[in-house]
Amino acid sequence: MKGSQAIIKSLTDEGVDVVFGYPGGVLLPLYDVIYDSDLKHILVRHEQCAAHAADGYARASGKVGVCIGTSGPGATNLVTGIATAYMDSAPIVALAGQVGTSLIGNDAFQEVDTIGMTMPISKHSYQAMEPSEIPQMIRSSFYIARTGRPGPVVVDLPKDVQEGELDYPENITIDLPGYKPTKKGHPMQVKKAAELILTSKKPVILAGGGVIHSNSSDELQHLSEIIGAPVTTSLMGKGCFPEDHPLSLGMLGMHGRMSSNMMVDECDCLIAVGCRFSDRTTGDVNKFAPNAKIIHIDVDPAEIGKNITVNVPIVGDAKIILSHLIRIISQTKSVNNHDWADYVKSFRTSCMPRLSFDDIPLKPQQVIKEISEAVTDDTIVTTDVGQNQMWMAHYFTSRNPRKFISSGGLGTMGFGFPSAMGAKVAMPDNDVVAVCGDGGFLMVCQDLATVKEYDIPVVVCVLDNRYLGMVFQWQKLFYDERISQTKLKAMPDFVKLAEAFGVNAYRVERPGEMKETLKDALNSGEPTLIDVMIDPNEILPMVPPGCGLTEIVGEYKVERENPGEITYQHSAKETGGD
Amino acid sequence: MDKQRSHIISAIVMHRPGVLQRVAGLFTRRGFNIDSITVGPSEQDGLARMTIISRGDEKVLEQITKQLNKIIEVVKVRDLDPEGTVIRELCLIKTHATSERSRSEIIQYANIFRGRIVDAGPENLTLEITGTPEKIDALIDLLRGFGIKEISRTGPTAISRGSKTI
Questions:
Q1: pLDDT at position A322, please?
Q2: Which residues form the ACT domain (chain B) (predicted)?
């Protein structure tokens, strides 16, 4: 068997049925095998989209996503997508072509040091120097990508290695003496955590992406309910706990819900599960959860104590540890945090953000409200990066894990659309909606050709304000309104742009139109773009960098039905918890 | 803030190309200080031992060992206790030595430090010395007066005392 055939056989043996890629000179042997293979290959229009699509595929399905790029520029174009997956712990395997082994190091045509380049942004990387290494390398790559803390693995495949002969082994053993992820939490630590929870009066759970990776949403909800602890999430954790649950506080952090930021400030015990305390989540670490003892559950020991000093660290798989905690706590009948839970519920109701606006141009809150009304619990939404992302994170109600996909760590503009494409390919029975900004979408708009060619019916909502909104907002708030290079003066007509690709497109300008247009688009079963003209001057309330989580600037508009005005600076403290 | 001190980190790694780059890259990327790094084969086939000297407080050191452990090709990591560890470095020093007097003085110093003359020319002597980095520093200081032409140091390598292994 040839190396290239072994690559495809290895992928198929791993259960891969679809790959996202872009061919090139050194990949000719591999693509020659793809020509008559059963493996579905989706030809993207830019390698970055292949990596993001594999990422979206992985996050939506929990399976490993695969992308392929050629040597040199193919590999450099994959880099942004690999780094995005790395920061958000998404399991992907990136296959990169490489010049022949005899040419490596000679600055050959389309040669780049892919391994060196991706070392800091991948969980692991391999370079095959012999065809016989391929089966074990690919098996190990998938194993590493999906186990422990998931992440991207890069496999560099020189052309002659693809062409060389090998005997495909019957049994492939994974030999990784340096890789043994901890699954079960240390029993003493779990016991300590249970004791801390049982003695706390005001517990809060902070759930991150790890809850989604470990499929432990049910356990999390169970724990929250038996101890009366409200749940806040990081951006990556959004959806792991139903956000319409009375104990849901919404997202925490710089652009978090007031309910989250205030309750974390007030809690006496913070149970952090599968999150890494990023600066966007914590604000000033010295002012973070000042009254709380912190329990940190994470599969990656290096995350514990990295950003925040914790009282009870537990390394292991969230699902196993949460179940263990629930077992211990259920045996004790002394949990009584009703007062706290009731207080949290009423505080939460008092500061529900206002969503309804009848202004023209449209307010983003109104648009997101209508998106919420048009989609179901099974709909997967992806976001781009910037204001569109934070509006979605703040105002959109997510109820299920793996249904809210966003580039959190790296903050990659251009992520929303291709990740939606990947999510739709992974989950063809679920509706998929990408919410993008006009800046980010324009970075990847060429892949409208891909959704058209393969009939991938995603709906792209472009929140169109002709500004790079997030940076524009910061310039207005913190740089004396010196609007430097954030006005997008010449932009395409997005409806015509989509139509040029043969993709259906509509423009939305008035309240009420978004819901109907989106419903129709989803029902049409065809890829669709909706250009939504929004007000560029709507500012999202935020915690300025370096401030504590309660120091929110910008008007926090609350739902009108709720009595009284909220003065968020002091409300939590004055109402009192006990 | 905890006090900064020098740490001796001993790591067993897979003996493969690129491992050194992964380890060195990690130190640069995470802003960890690195004083020296030595690598060589270990007692087991396919595994190499790295000795890394790094400075930092306890929190930084904890991160260093955890981050090193995350590298798939790193098998074991241990922060060695300086009290219970044998530390040795090899150093070659090429000095000016033209006069008879300076030549004999240099040879005497070499003897005091249990070093050896490993090469000699009409205008130079080359010394070999092994020992702790402090001992080597001391000899280098003494030889400066004669004019040092070249120094080549390996950086410290280390192993724990007694039957303990990492």
A1: 98
A2: 8-82
